[in-house]
Structures are given as C-alpha cells and as structure tokens.
Amino acid sequence: MTIDLTALAAPDFWIGVGIVAGIYSIFSLGLQLNVGLTGILNFGQAGFMAVGAYAMAILILRFHWPAPVALAASAAIAMLAGVVIGAASLRLSGDYLAMATIAAAQLVSGVAQNAAPLTGGNQGLLGYDAAWTTLARWMLARLSAVGLGDQSQLPLFIVTWAIFGLALALLTGLRGTPWGRVLRAIREDEAAAAALGKNVFAYKLQSLAIAAGLAALAGDLLALNITLIYPQSFSADVTFIGFAVLVLGGLGSFAGVALGSVLLWSVLEAASFVRLPLAADKVAAVQMLIVGLVLIAVMVWRPEGLRGKREEMVLRG
Amino acid sequence: MTRARHATALITSIALILGIAAGGAMMTSGVIAAPSFTMTIGDLEPYTGDLGPLGAPADKAVKLATAQLNQAAKQAGLAVTFKMVTADTRSDPQAALSAARQLIDQGATCLTGPASTPESLAILNSITKARRIPMLPSASSTRLRTVDDGHTIFRTVPPDNLQARALVLAVKQQLGGAQGKTVAIGYQNSPYGEGLANTFKQSWTAMGGRIQGPFGYDPNQPSYDTEAAKIVAGSPDAFVFADFPDTFGKVSAALLRTGKFSAAKLFVSDALAVSPIPATIPAAALNGAHAVNAGSPTGTPQAQAFNTLYLSAPGPKRSALDANNFDSGILCGLAAVAAGANTPSLIATQLPKLSGPAGSPFTYLQLAAAMRALRAGTRIHYVGVSGPIEFNAQGDTSAGTYDLSTWKNGALVLVRQINAKE
Amino acid sequence: MLNAARSGTPPPADARAAATGAGRRWVAAACIAALAALLASRGAETAAQATINGLVTGTYFALGAVGLSLVFGVLRLVNFAHGDMLTFGAYVALFLNAGSGWPIVPATLGGVLATAALAAASELAIWRPMRARRAGGFQMLLITVGLAFVIRNCIQLAAGADPLQLRLDVTSAVALPGGLRIGTVELWVVVAGLGALLAVATLLRYGRLGKEMRALADNLSLAEVAGIDTRRVILATWLFAGALAGLAGVLSSAAAGILTPNFGFQLLLSLFAATILGGIGNAYGALAGGLLLGFAEEWSALFVDARWKLAVGFVILILTLLVRPNGLLGRPALK
C-alpha cells in the first residue's frame, strides 16, 4: 500500500474537490433546513437538483433566455416543484414521506431519461454554459493579476462558495426570526405548534420549497462543473451522500454542513490515491464502503455530528 | 591560479560553443537527438457504476499496451519508458472529472478512456481542451464528433453512425433488400443503445424498410418477458440489438423463452461482439447470430496474437472494446515517441499523423520497428488490433471497414467485411 | 387487516375494516377495468401473456417486499439495506452453487440461512443496542442507508463487479394452453415463491409469533407490559425478514439469469412500492401489493413504451400514498 503524493499535493485537484464539496454544501443546506430544523425527511433532494439543472439548461438552450435569468428561474421552478410535491406528500408521517420523496425524485429522473424532445433523453443536454465561460474567462483575467491565472477551475470554486456563503447567511438570519422559531417548534412538537394556531402545513411547505431552491442552485453549479447534464447525474446516491454530509456536520448546524462536506469529499477523493493491492473495481468499492461506514459510525457513536448539539437529535421518528 | 582559471573557462566556453554548434548541425540535418523521458498514460475507466463491467478488461488492455511499449522501446534502443496510472470514473461525469485531474496531476500526458460520452464531454470541456491534452475515449456516440474539441479527441472506436450503416448493410444483404422488410430493434436505454437504435432506424426507413419498435429497456429491470414478447410479435424479418453483455444476457434469455426467436435473424452491435460467448449470455441466443465490429478483430495476425497475449495474462476475460483500448494505449505511446517529448500538446499534434495510408503500415507486432521509423522521421500507419486506424478531421477513425462475423459453436467467425465509409 | 375486525376491537377498528373493504373493492374494480381494457385493445393472448409475465415479476416483488413490510410494521423501520440483503443471499447461493458445486436447492437454502443470520446479526450488533439507547427514527433510518452501502460494497469487494450467474438453464420455457408460455425456472420460482409466501403468511396469521408481532406493531410498550418477550419477537422478525430476503434474492436472480452487486438495490424502490401498496406489517398485504405492482408494470408495457415501466412503479407508490397512505389493503392508521 503506497500513497501517491505528487498529485495529492496538486492545487487544481483540490480546487476540483472544493467545487464538489461546495456544491454538496449548498445541496445539504436544504436538507439541513428540512431535516435538522423542520423535521421533514426529504429523501428527494436529488430530484429537485435535477429539476433545477434541467430547467436552467432548457431555458437557455430551447428558449434562449439570458443565463442569469435562467439561473434565477431554475431556482423558482424547483421551488414550485417543491410546493407541488410537498402539497401532495407533506401530510404523510416521516417514513412515508421519505419513500414518497425518493419515488418522486426517481420519477423526475425517469422523465429526464425518456422525454427526449425536451430533456435530450439519455444523451442529455450540452452547450448551455457559453455565458458562464465568458464570465469565467473574465474572472481568470483578474485572477492572473495575482498569479492564479492558470487555475482554470478557480472561478467556479469562488462562485460556488460565494453562493454557499450567501445561502448560509440567509438561513442563519432566518433561523433567529419568528419564522425560524416556528420551524423548530414544529420539529420539536408538531401538535403543540398547531395548537398555537400556526399553520404547520404551510410552514413545512415553505421549508421544502426553500430546500428545493437550494438544490436547484446546487444542480446549476453541478451542470456548470460537468458541462453537460444527463439523467444519471442525479441518482438517489446524491441524496444519500447529502445525508452523510449532513450528519457529519451535525444536525441543526448550518455552518457544520460545509465542514461535513469538505471532510467527506476530502476523505473520498484522497482515498482514491491510496494504492491498495486490489483490482480497481474493488478499490472503488472501498470508497463507497467509507460513505456507509461514516453514516453508521456517526449515527451510532456521535449522532449529533461532529459539532452539532445533542438536543438537536430529539427528532420524532 | 587566475591564469589557470581563465584557461579552464576559455576551454569550457569553446567546448560549449562547439557542442551547441554540433547540436544545431545535427538538428538541421534531420537526425534528431535521442530523447530520454518517461511517458505517463492516464487510463480513465469505469470500475464501478453502470459501466462497471467494462472497466477491468479495458484497464488490462491498456496495461498490456504499456508493457508492449516498454518492451519495444528497449528493443529499439530508446531511452523512453512508459508508465500507466489509472483512476475510476465511476460511470459518472462528476467522478470522471476528479479522476482525470488526479491522473493529470500524476503526470499523465495522454488519456485512454473514459468509456462514456458524458464523461468524455465533462473532461474535455473542463480540463483537456484548454490544456491540449489528448484523450482517446472508448465512447462511440456520434455526438462526440460534433463537439469542438480543439483537436484533442481521437477515437479508435468508430462512431456509431458508421456502425449503424454497417448494420443496415449487413441486414439488407441477408434479407435481399430493405424494401418492405420489417426489422425489430431492441436497445438498452442508455446513451449507447439509444443512439445506435435511432441511427439504425433512420437509415433503414430511408431505404424503404419498416421498423418494429425501437424497444428500449432499462438495464435494471427484474424481467424482460413482456419486452421480448413485443419484439418477437408478428415474426419480423430480422432483429437488431444495441446492448451490453450484462443486460443482453437477461433480455436474450427472455427472447429464447418466447419460442419465437431465431438467432439466425439476429444482428448485434459491437459491444456485444464478444468471443467466446460469455457464460452470462445463453449460447443459444448468439450461435448463428451476426455481429458487426470495427476492423478485422479475429482474422489478422495481430488480432490473433493479441488474443493469445490477453488470455495468457492474468485478469478478466475478453470483452467488447478491449482491443480498441489496447490500440489507444499503443497510439499514445507511439505519438510520444514521434513527438520526442512527454508534452501533451506535442503528443496531440503527432496522434493524427500515426494514421492513414500515407504512412508505412506497422502492427503492434512490429512496435520496435515502428518506433525506430518514427525516430528516423518516417511516417507510419498504425494498423491496430481493432482494425486500421484512419483519423479524419474530427479525430474519428474514418476507415469504416467492419467485420461481419457470426457465432459458430460459441466463437465468432468472420463472414465478410463491410465497407461503411461515408 | 382482518384481525382488527375479528378480534372484536372497539368501533374505530370497524371503521378501519370498512375502509379497508372499500380499498379492496376499489383495487378489484381497477384490476378488472385494466384487464377489460387489455382484452379489448390487445387481444386475449397478448393480455394473458402479459398477465403471466406480471405474475412472475409480481412474485419477485412480493417475495422481496414481505421482509421489508414485517420490519417496517414491527419496528417502524424503513430498511434501506433490505435490497442489499437480497443481493447477499443471492451471492451466497451463487458461491455455493457455481463456486462449490452444490445443487441448486441446498445452495438456495444456504443463501436463505446466511441472510437470516446476517439480519439477526444486524439486530444483535446494531438495532438492539440502538433501541436501548433510545435512538431516534432518523438515526435508525440513516444507519440502514449506511448498512446498505456497507453490504453492497463488501459484496463487490469480495466478488468484483462482473456479472455472474447460477448454473441454471434460464432459456427453456413451458408451453401452456392457448399459446402462452412461462420460463421453466420462472415457473419454479413462482411456485416455490408463492408457496413460501403463503406458508409464511398463514403461519404469521394464525401462529403465536404472528400475534405477538402484531401486538408489537400496535404498541411496543403495551406488548411488553402484557408479558411478551419483545426481544425474542423482534429477533424472530429479523430472522424471518432475512430468510425471506435471502429467498427473494436467490429466486429472482436465478430467474433473471444474471447477478451483479447492484441487483438488490435496484429493486428496492419497487419493493417500497409493493410494501406501501399492500399495507405495512402484513405478509398477505405484501403478497398482494407485489403481485399488483407486477401486473401493473407488465400491463403498462402494452400501452406505453416499456422504457416507462419502472416509472409506473413510482407513480403507483406516490398515488397510493396520496390516496390511501396506509396501503390499499393495509390495516390503517398505525401511529
């Protein structure tokens, strides 16, 4: 067993990891709002991500909308999807909601795969990133003034983490407002919140819609990173990894999500540098084994996550 | 002391000047100084995920290519060594990007793989186009040729539009014309299957033929009996399948169970052109069926030698695109030898010059001779295990020569060659 | 479902039973309508063949769903690792059959026993200690997700990603009257699978264990007070769930012909759908839910492009949850 250090020390590799970690941070912020703050078991976050990414790409490619408008519209469309799916499923209790949302996400992916005239089908969509490429080039020209001009992925890294920062500030601000307190009350005792005259359902719907909007932004950034979207990019595994990020960072902690994401992705990506005396398909199995072990270990030994508070775990099944 | 030092300096300077002059003279006279470098081939394969079964055989092929390159370089007396690094693309563009960065950071200057078009496009647009790093994907969709790749993508796998044409020609000849004949198409609902099925459908209907389907099916279904019943319904004149072995194993069993399926009417795409028939596909589904595959995969000496080489090495059994992956690895190495440097952009420039009838032909069995020829500045034409390599302006092989083979007692036997040139 | 009415529980249960009856009538009507539409538009032979195919697929779903349903009913745990337990059983049988040369029946039994042991081990090593710590539902749910990844990737680590197959001829078929056909292995799977399912369902229906399981499902602490050894019943639930998962894995991979490490996980969402459709915690319900889902998917393939087949399962899952969250046949209002 050896470790290849030359590539492990290369900045562009870590910028790439940082982009993925940032995308999953934004993605999991939504999960945090749902699971950690409101107590909604949203297992369909990858579906909202797909809705956002496809909406952006379709608006740009088929309807020729300007990219910034399409970006904003993609978040709005995903929020609308969140409202629709939430309206149908949020009255279900926890476990059923988990199954309903994961099925909805699979349905989104089925539509993406089979409604080829709209979504490009299996071949996916490509070429929606012209405006972004221009912006990235402009940013790189500025970056070269400080000697970072040849890190071609740095602009996306900066934009991703800037969006995460904004979302984090927004959610942290919202948590302290009466609105945020109602969400927490719903998580702790839904019946009591309802008895206080709060429209629990409407609050849950808002929570799910915001999470869907965040998933859409994560999806848009994913689309810019991989430069094409196709159905398999939004598999259920994306949601499961999001949950691993969530529990690592600690339930109820918005900032913890970033910590969890950076930690998980660093471990996952660095693990591929460890040269095990194994066939490659088996080495890859080790990597996903790590995700599973992280989930189990954290939930068994430190369910509040690495820096969450234990009282946040009091969650109704 | 000082005088001695001056003298030494003077002598050194003269020696240096003479040396430079001599070097320059050598350069201008066309004799290239022997280069000395280690070239790293980056092998991007899907070891996990949907395309997981393709990974290990492709990796083995590129490993064998690297060993052949090293052996040939030694024989040719070159101070060039080859190294291979590999990473898992997990059949996922996101993971493929990370894998590609990892390999490039490890010094890879030429990439073999990845196996799918989405992965190739992600890597192209995010990394390799800007840095002019050549990539030889084993994805065959026609779509890869239409993207702006800055002349960095080269394929030993012929694009699917040529393959669909070869399939059309094969079916047409067997049925004695296309007019009014019905072909039932089945395909795996994936970029590969869907692309081929639709291209075939267009060409066949353009010739006046009729289509039943195309019937797409998900690789993850528990059973395929209803699909099989729809495909065999009304006994069509021929069946065409674009699929991978692991799904086709399940589908073909369902086809046989209908009792209305005849392997003699079956034509399959290159991903299924495996010999011998793997244990996961019922032999009755393929014995007597026809397959198209680029080049001459079974008839030529290099193909036979490769088969022996591959089977004598430990690891996985033969698989659909292993020969193409082997050729990709060899081409990377030859291009580096031709460039005389381990520089990606130079390798990318040299790659298209290794192909085409303008050069003298070499197979991998004459690799040392090919390297010597390249160092002497001769143009070569690499005749691959997977067929002759002729890169067109888009970096695709334009050779368009397909083998039509049939399975007899579990092994593919060449029937004849089809020219599917555009 | 029936027990609520039969054991003479107070009025709400009668109301539940009435609702269940309505659900059943609704399902029966929908099935008859679908069949009539099929017969009218596609002809008797095509419709009958699709129904036979639905029976085969439905058997896979039903077999896989029973264990999931029992664990969900008794422990309120949605087991995301259930699909990978199927895979585990199938691989054990495969190694015994193709690797060690055991005949198929003992190999199947080996797979069944090994999976039951795996499920029991997970109860002893994880679930029992976690319940003792009063772990939350979310915590347990994520552990099952983690366990799914661990089982699947351990299998891949041991066996590789290449597809493998049992030593069986999956290509032969039995000709039925009217030009209909069913694969020989498929026929065996349907007979053995449905037989095992009916046996288990009847055992749970009338046996003491089944009564105790239902008592636990209704109210765990009450069952404890009533003197039921809950630890034993829960362990037995896991053993049953594991054994049935193992059987499901071996039988459905045997009939399909090919086995990969992703096999069970790919089936999981369909199993969720079957469980929900049949109502949780109920072996008869899982049987009916699985068969219904199988029919629906295969019938749908005659009307729409078969590419949408899997999506049909998800639509049914969502619709069931919307219309009758406790399943069309399930005993309602478990809280």
Topology of helices and strands:
The complex is a heterotrimer of chains A (317), B (422) and C (335).
Chain A: E1 2-3, H1 5-8, H2 11-38, H3 45-61, H4 67-89, H5 94-114, H6 116-119, E2 125-126, H7 130-144, H8 154-176, H9 178-188, H10 190-195, H11 200-226, E3 228-229, H12 236-249, H13 254-271, E4 274-275, H14 280-301
Antiparallel strand pairs in A: 1-4, 2-3
Helix pairs in contact in A: 2-8, 2-11, 2-12, 2-13, 3-4, 3-5, 3-11, 4-11, 8-11, 9-11, 12-13, 12-14
Chain B: H1 2-28, E1 36-45, H2 55-75, E2 79-88, H3 93-105, E3 108-112, H4 117-131, E4 135-136, H5 143-146, H6 160-175, E5 182-188, H7 191-206, E6 210-217, H8 225-232, E7 238-242, H9 245-257, E8 266-268, H10 283-286, E9 290-294, H11 301-312, H12 322-339, H13 344-350, E10 360-362, H14 367-375, E11 380-384, E12 387-388, E13 401-408, E14 411-419
Helix pairs in contact in B: 2-12, 2-14, 3-4, 6-7, 8-9, 12-13
Chain C: H1 2-6, H2 11-42, H3 44-75, H4 82-99, H5 104-132, H6 137-159, E1 173-176, E2 180-183, H7 184-206, H8 208-218, H9 220-225, H10 230-256, H11 263-278, H12 283-303, H13 309-323
Antiparallel strand pairs in C: 1-2
Helix pairs in contact in C: 2-3, 3-7, 3-10, 3-11, 3-12, 4-5, 4-6, 4-10, 4-11, 5-10, 7-8, 7-10, 8-10, 11-12, 11-13, 12-13
Mean pLDDT of chain C: 84
Q: Low-confidence runs of chain C (pLDDT<50, min 5 residues)?
A: 1-18
Computed CA radius of gyration of chain A, to the nearest angstrom = 20 Å
Secondary structure tally, helices of chain A: 14
Could you name the CATH class of chain C? Answer: Mainly Alpha
- Main β sheet profile of chain C: 2 strands, antiparallel
CATH architecture tag of chain A: Orthogonal Bundle
H-E order of chain A: EHHHHHHEHHHHHEHHEH
Task: Give a count of the beta strands of chain C, DSSP E runs of length 2 or more.
Answer: 2
- Give the proportion of residues in helices of chain C: over 70%
Distance from first to last alpha carbon of chain A: 43 Å
